[in-house]
Specification:
It is a single chain. The chain is of the alpha/beta class. The chain contains 11 helices and 11 strands. Helix 2 links the parallel strand 1 and strand 2. Helix 2 packs across helix 9 and helix 4 runs parallel beside helix 11. About 2% of the residues have low confidence.
Length: 325
């Protein structure tokens, strides 16, 4: 009798588990929390933006989005982790165009195919990059800094968020075009690049404009160069305005998934990203930080990546940046 009761209990338990599993599978996507891989340190603009976008997406999708920070190798550590993750719609990634310039400058460090292993869900943000120095630095203009770097090769230390990043690519372009020689100091990202400059551990920083704004307003930093002309800083030139026939690259961020995402998940995620980006509150928050909220569909983003990679290769060949065997 006891054995019969035990067997019946085990059967009901197993039946309950199977029914629960089938119920979960039958529920529409998403039916559990989603992980968002962030390729930078906590507190960085990439992290802040990814978490803000995740919050908006969570409201739209009706589930929790869990941020997972994986900094390193100019965002490539995280992007590779995304490419290798399950293709079930429950691991997404915040990806930037840095992957394009790492592929151009250091292709051997990328162990995934950015065209085949990951797929875009929508672009949502672009931001200009800038060169800044301490307000009491002897260089009042970028040309003065270039003259110093030419006369004192390697004495001007410049940090970026990493080797192969957009800012590093720009730095290499500047060196090739002008003949100036800087010492590149790669960081993992976040506010560490600003802290190092403010602490006098290096002389110059090349990073996202939004990081500099509070320190410019407080009188601690001075801008010398911008990748994009900005109305808020009319007296800060671009490289083209200094007489060089070359534009510099800026940064953009987008939501991606591993390729092969189920169609059910894609039909939910793509419109959700668009809706989140076009939320007026989200847009206003980041425009106050001098960032440009801009939506591009997956198809538009694929086209942008292809065009930007081709343009980057052309620039790299033009100024002699590509490695040759």
């Amino acid at each position: 009798m006891k054995r019969s009761i035990l067997m019946a209990g085990l059967f009901l338990f197993a039946y309950g588990l199977s029914v629960g599993a089938l119920t979960t599978l039958a529920q529409p996507y998403p039916n559990r929390p989603i992980q968002i891989i962030i390729p930078n340190v906590p507190g960085s603009i990439m992290d802040i933006n990814a978490r803000a976008l995740s919050e908006e997406l969570g409201k739209i999708l009706g589930t929790t989005l869990i941020p997972i920070n994986k900094p390193g190798a100019a965002t490539i550590v995280a992007t590779e982790a995304l490419a290798r993750s399950k293709k079930d719609g429950y691991t997404l990634g915040h990806v930037g165009n840095t992957m394009i310039y790492v592929k151009i400058l250091n292709p051997e460090t990328i162990r995934f195919d950015m065209d085949k292993d990951i797929e875009p869900l929508g672009m949502h943000l672009t931001l200009p990059l800038a060169v800044a120095v301490q307000a009491n630095a002897p260089w009042k203009t970028f040309n003065e800094a270039l003259d110093y770097a030419k006369k004192n090769p390697g004495k001007l230390r410049v940090d970026t968020i990493g080797i192969g990043s957009s800012a590093h690519f720009n730095l290499e372009i500047i060196q090739s075009l002008t003949g100036a020689q800087f010492t590149h100091v790669p960081f993992k990202g976040g506010e560490s690049v600003i802290t190092a400059l403010l602490g006098g551990h290096l002389e110059m920083t090349f990073d996202a404009i939004n990081k500099f704004v509070p320190h410019i307003e407080s009188g601690k930093l001075r801008l010398l160069l911008l990748t994009n002309k900005m109305a808020d800083f009319p007296n800060v030139p671009t490289l083209a305005e200094l007489g060089y026939n070359q534009t510099l690259v800026y940064t953009w961020f987008a939501m991606y998934a591993p390729s092969g995402l189920p169609e059910e998940a894609k039909k939910v995620l793509v419109p959700a990203v668009e809706k989140a980006v076009k939320n007026p509150a989200y847009k206003a928050k980041f425009e106050q930080m001098k960032l440009i909220v801009e939506y591009k569909s997956p198809a538009e983003l694929k086209k942008l990546v292809a065009e930007e990679y081709a343009r980057g290769l052309e620039i790299a060949d033009k100024v002699g940046l590509r490695k040759t065997n």
